[in-house]
Amino acid sequence: EDEDLKWGKLEELLKKYQDPKEVDKLEKLKDELKQVEEICHKNLNDLLKRGEDLDKLMEKSKDVSNLSLDFYKQAKKANSRCCSLS
């Protein structure tokens, strides 16, 4: 029974030491830092893409604004012609 306990503990330690991150706190910290870095890169890429999308939206907004101003001017001109014919 005492032997089983020793072998059980030995097997547990062998499993634990198979993964360096479980034993070496520095390795574990490096791994966590790498994960944080990957998340930061993804967030920056998403932010840049969002900025590009906002730029495109602003351009479309300007185009619509210009078109609506042209339409307003043409409608006003057409309206004044109709009034002068009466």
Automatic annotation (TrEMBL):
Residues 25-85 form the V-SNARE coiled-coil homology domain. SUPFAM superfamilies: SNARE fusion complex. It comes from the Eukaryota. GO terms for molecular function: SNAP receptor activity. One of its GO terms (biological process) is endoplasmic reticulum to Golgi vesicle-mediated transport. GO terms for cellular component: Golgi apparatus. Keywords: Coiled coil. The keyword Nucleus does not apply. PANTHER family: SYNAPTOBREVIN HOMOLOG YKT6. This is V-SNARE coiled-coil homology domain-containing protein. It comes from Nymphaea colorata.
